[in-house]
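Structure ticket #2291
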Amino acid sequence: MTNAPIYDAAKQRITSLVEGQDPQTPVAATPGWSVKDVVAHLAGGLRDFVDRRFDGVESGEWGERQVRDRKDNSLADAFAEWEANRELAEPLFDTPMGSVLISEVVAHEHDLRAALGVPGDRDGVAVRAALTKPLQQLDQRMRDNEVPALRITLEHGDRVLGHGDPAGTLRTTSFELMRAIGGRRSADQIKALDWDGDPDVWIAALALFGRHRPEPFSE
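Resolution: structure written out below.
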């Protein structure tokens, strides 16, 4: 399955999920944002991908700017912009950027599901596809920083990150790994997973965006 259908399916699920909901419902996975803000971020973020505008990604200002610039817009405005930007983004799905877009939309789908109390599919194609780019990034980061290799055992097989023989093993699910490396779990929550080896060896490397969530988050 290619990136565009996976993205569009997640976009449709989000549209159906949010329909009829209070747009001001807080989304605990993204502190300070509401349901409307998450959709505005997805819309604005997609346009930033089209424009190759990535200033503030590491600090978190990237997403905050998108939400701030659209604070006076309605949820309907956010969906209309997202639809327009989806057309502009069509060429991106056949590039390496496509897997980044999958990670973004699937992560926020589950942020919204947690906020609205409507859990979704956690072991299907979308979640596995959402791990493709993050695991590539983590593998490269561990190699660049000479972090000992780690075997990750998921429900569909093993993956070794880093160079050389693995010095430890993490056993978890694709969904939990996606949430852990995507900033939706605290360091203590990640350390409490099923490890062989000292998780402190890898805990910093597993923060895809440079930091783990300060407080525990369960969903």
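Closing remark: The chain has a mean pLDDT of 96.
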